[in-house]
Amino acid sequence: MAGKTRAIERTPLSLSEKTYLPQIVNGLKTTFSNILKPNVTLQYPEERPVISESYRGVPTLVRDPNGREKCVSCQLCEFVCPPKAIRITPGEISDSEEDRVHVEKGPKEFEINMLRCIYCGFCQEVCPEEAIWLQEDYSVSGYSREEFLNNKDRLYELGGTMPDNHYKWDKKKEAELNGHEGHH
Amino acid sequence: MSQNGTQELVPVNIDGQEFNLPKGMNLVEAVNTVGKEIPHYCYHPKLSVAGNCRMCLIDMGMPMRDRATGDAILDENGVQKIGWMPKPAIACNSNVSPGLHIKLESETVKDYRNGIMEFLLVNHPLDCPICDQAGECRLQEFSADYGRGYSRFIEDKNVKPKRTKLGERVTLDDERCILCSRCVRFSSEIAGEDVLGFVDRGSYSTLTCYPGKSLDHNYSLNTVDICPVGALTSTDFRFKMRVWFLKEANSICSESSVGSNTVVSSREGKIYRITPRRNDAVNDTWMTDSARELYKQVEEDTRLLSPQILQKEASLDDALSQAIEILKNDKLRMVGSSLSSVEEQFILRKIAKIKEIECYFLAHLGAEDGLLLSADRRPNTRGALLNDLISDVPTSRLDRLEEEIKLGLVDTLLVIHEDLSLTGIDAELLKDLKIVYLGTHTNSTSALASVNLPTLTVFEKKGSFVNQSFRLQKFNQAVPGPAGLFPDTLILTKLLSGISGEEFISPTVDLIWEELAASTPELNDITFHSIGTDGIALNADRFRNLQFPEVKSLKFSIEDFRATEDLVPAL
Amino acid sequence: MILEVLLHVLAAVLMITVVMTMAGYSVLAERKVSSWIQGRVGPNRTALPILSSIPIVGPLIVGLGLFQPLADGLKFLFKEEVMPGHVNKFYYVLAPIITLIPAMTTMVVLPFGQMIDPESGQRIPLILANIDIGILFIFAVGSLGVYGVVIGGWASNNKYSFLGSVRSSAQMISYELAMGISVIPVLLLANPPGMEGGLSLVNVITSQDSLWNFVLMPISALLFLICLFAETNRTPFDMAESETDLVGGFHTEYGSFKFGLFFVSEYTHIIVGSGVFVALFFGGSNFLPWLPNPWPSGIIGGVFSVLWFIAKVVCMIFLFIWVRWTLPRFRYDQVMNLGWKILLPISIANLVFYIIAFAVYEKLIN
């Protein structure tokens, strides 16, 4: 790299440059022309910014098109979460939930501490079931620490339904029905 | 199962590199000793070889010899030719032999593994997110190491029952089973209850119990441990916590005097499971189901969580000074415990020496199963013997203490962990005694005690036990104790300081060991740090003729113990 | 006699009111202009209950933030008066007061308009005190303002405050020289030979009836303007409060109303300085160069001239603000170099040039 270094001689300043006055006038011109330009400020609470598709807002839990929870509480998000904002209590899905019993496992409790969350999106990236999504909510406010503890109900309320076409568990059920006779 | 071969070392060529390996040793094990790996599922060092998973296929060859003359066949360079077998062989059923040539890294070997992985994964469900084995699953590891990385299988996978209860503690997920038969062999060969087997053929093959039986023996959870995939799961641990969160600590099972080596897995101070740790001198790779439940005592309702004076909560300082006041009495006797570690017993001995009193120990006996549950249901009776706290094997009744109480020679007792109602002493007699109780849980004695001093369980402190064959083994702290509770060693040292009037600093385990090694001949030159993960076999000559209750377990028999002289030269 | 005194007091109160209001709105202008220059909006939320609900006008004045100075002033009034424990309390309180007083005093000699007496047809300058020493009074009293800065910085017992005040005093002394010298040609022009001389700004304005001094002596005007920036501690000469190296400068330890006083006196300085500059070089309340004043005689004409003067001052204030949001701050050594090594020699040369020029001009005329 040393060969590429080149010392450039500074050209001496001309008289007008030495007074700085033309430069100051130029500067004044620039700032004045800025006054005439439209400003870019967004009147926030009334106007909202356009949120991009890939925006990383508040992490939420989503349901599949059948309205069933997608999370199987594998706890990978809990593991990958750099600030340890996620806390999951895993649980077994009981036999009484017939349409979901073959999923076997689901979160008993799922908490995301929004005071800890850094919106990195690792949880979304790592989720094998595409159950956790950072959606477009960006304005999180509250009066107490407890309000920033998003529990499972709140996360599903924020998340809503994700209209994807995986139908993983439907396919599994179908495969079970299509199985050969006597094949369990 | 001559896994370990002979002492003789013979040359073996692995991927063109020469190694000297013990002749006759199982190839999987032998290759392991030089830092190489042969992937395997069905092979287990402590079970017979089945050879049905085919994962350990490798290329093998021997130097060629002329069949007629027996002369070596040389190639044009004058080097003996290698007769490579045309087809792969399983390493788990091969032993080290002189001149053996094997390939572990060749393209063909990679191809065998790749093919086997693909077949194994054909019907294996994509359950990893919910599978308890994920993170310690051989199938996951090897498919990452040797698999192709994507699936060519477009048909529907088999759907099989996901939660068959094989027994009270074991749940089977049929879809995940790769039919390695480790569990079947374990049940018949080690546990001695041949309840498991495969039925049906092809993709219908299923692991199941013999009709009318279930997998309920006391070693059933070992099948979960050795299952290379997540097919057999522990009903207790199922879906409780992912294994990558668990912090592991080496511990020693306190269920009986066998002293199985264990790993205690916890997360954030909560224990989730106990699994066995391999120690070929004690428990191989097994442990009992009952011992795996012991962690539940940590959070039991009966746990003693605060110091008490006359059954009322008190500060530790108040309780200690009250206890010291009581213990200054001359008519004091102590009832020690074989649950205490060697270090705790050592401090107890100091108290006994200062007070010049006798320490009573109570035997807790149960039926032996010949494997890993011995008759002495306390982990550290031998420690008390080594510490000279007792001179003979404890009895299951404390008649002599009862006699002394009756004669009025005793009106104060220091009880460690023990429940006096099991000693056979008349309950009416106990009511008149002043009792200082040190223990982790409440019992009938703590209900009578004037002062209760809470201590920590084996999972919350570190120390060492001496097992039935006089093997010194250490356990580490797995989880922090409940808030405000201190180790037994500290409490005992405070009592010692108070009783003797001399101020002892509360010692660390290492400091105790300095004194311990100096004062006990069998423990000379041992420091706490020098006790390895496998423990240290101690010289037991002083105790060979005592009437121990144990008869036989996996690695111990009383005849051998009595017959052995100078098992280990005196240190 | 009493009536005259009352009138003077009334006029003084009126002037203070106007200047204070202008100071308040200068702050708003500062915020608004800076935000426009930076592509922002600036204060546009403060609203009064009834006024802001007038259709069209209400939203407009709210959008311009016209109620903002009111809110700012009230804030300064009602904030907790904090007295730091480590300050010299007497001087700490004194400093903002003696900063504001000179700033307000200088405007006494500032002619802010003119009126033609309808009876005599004589021109009456509108000024609180037409004293003979005029411009000298402004320089003398105006530079007293630095005492407030020095005392405030010292009494705060804080190294940043102290550094700020020391810098400020050195800077004021440095630039006063060039400033004074640059004005002398203007005074020479206003006091032609044969006339009764005087340093009153009224004379200066009268001398600019046809031609503004700005055209005649641009170098003087530029020098004076630069020095004015330095004297008022405005960017690029705001050494006293350069927040990048001195936290808040001399008023770091000040808050609430005491800070408000500093703040107001800073803008009062600017307003009065602008007024002086307009009077010296831009014809004061005169209409336009080469044009006779169109003001009618009587009070109405006086009001017009005052408004015209104020309009010029407002333009100057805009210039101050405009420059602030354009130029970066000098380094301190650059400030000193500029003052002593460049401005002072140039102003002396300028003075010598005009002395010779006037002398030659006189000879030619005679």
Descriptive report:
The complex is a heterotrimer of chains A (184), B (571) and C (366). Chain A contains 6 helices and 5 strands, in the order ααβαββαββαα. In chain A, the strands form 2 sheets. A 3-stranded antiparallel sheet of chain A has the order 2-3-5. In chain A, strands 1-4 form a two-stranded antiparallel sheet. Chain A is 27% helix and 13% strand. Chain A is of the alpha+beta class. Chain A has a domain at 67-160: Alpha-Beta Plaits (2-Layer Sandwich). Chain A has helices at residues 15-19, 21-36, 76-80, 122-126, 152-159, 168-178; strands at residues 59-61, 86-92, 105-113, 132-134, 149-150. Chain B is α+β, with helices and mostly antiparallel strands. Chain B folds into 3 domains: 9-120, Ubiquitin-like (UB roll); 130-138 and 148-299, Alpha-Beta Plaits; 308-543, Rossmann fold, CATH 3.40.50. Chain B contains 15 helices and 26 strands. In chain B, α7 packs across α13 (488-500) and α8 packs parallel to α13. Chain B starts with 8 loop residues before the first strand and ends in an 8-residue tail after the last helix. Chain C has 366 residues and is mostly helical. In chain C, α7 runs antiparallel to α10. Chain C has one domain. A two-stranded antiparallel ribbon of chain C has the order 1-2. The mean pLDDT of chain C is 86. Classes of the chains: A alpha+beta (184), B alpha+beta (571), C mainly alpha (366). Chains in contact: A-B, A-C. Chain A binds chain B through residues 72-76, 78-79, 90-92, 102-105, 128-129, 172, 174-176, 178-179, 182-184, and chain B through 128-130, 134, 156-163, 174, 203-204, 206, 238-242, 244-245.
Write out key terms for the chains shown.
heterotrimer; A: 184 residues; alpha+beta; Alpha-Beta Plaits; three-stranded antiparallel beta sheet; two-stranded antiparallel sheet; 6 helices; 5 strands; elongated; C: 366 residues; mainly alpha; two-stranded antiparallel ribbon; 14 helices; 2 strands; 2% strand
What is this structure's SSE topology?
The complex is a heterotrimer of chains A (184), B (571) and C (366).
Chain A: H1 15-19, H2 21-36, E1 59-61, H3 76-80, E2 86-92, E3 105-113, H4 122-126, E4 132-134, E5 149-150, H5 152-159, H6 168-178
Antiparallel strand pairs in A: 1-4, 2-3, 3-5
Chain B: E1 9-14, E2 17-22, H1 27-33, E3 57-63, E4 82-84, E5 89-90, E6 101-103, H2 107-122, H3 138-146, E7 164-165, E8 170-172, H4 182-191, E9 196-199, E10 206-209, H5 221-226, E11 232-234, E12 247-252, E13 261-267, E14 270-276, H6 289-292, E15 308-309, E16 312-313, H7 316-327, E17 332-335, H8 342-355, E18 359-360, H9 381-386, H10 399-406, E19 412-416, H11 427-431, E20 434-439, H12 444-448, E21 451-454, E22 463-466, E23 471-475, H13 488-500, H14 509-519, E24 536-537, E25 552-553, E26 556-557, H15 558-563
Parallel strand pairs in B: 1-6, 17-18, 17-19, 19-20, 20-21
Antiparallel strand pairs in B: 1-2, 3-4, 3-5, 3-6, 7-8, 8-11, 9-10, 12-13, 13-14, 15-16, 15-21, 22-23, 23-24, 25-26
Chain C: H1 2-37, H2 57-63, H3 68-78, H4 89-105, E1 113-116, E2 123-126, H5 134-142, H6 145-155, H7 159-190, H8 201-207, H9 213-216, H10 218-231, H11 243-246, H12 256-281, H13 299-324, H14 332-365
Antiparallel strand pairs in C: 1-2
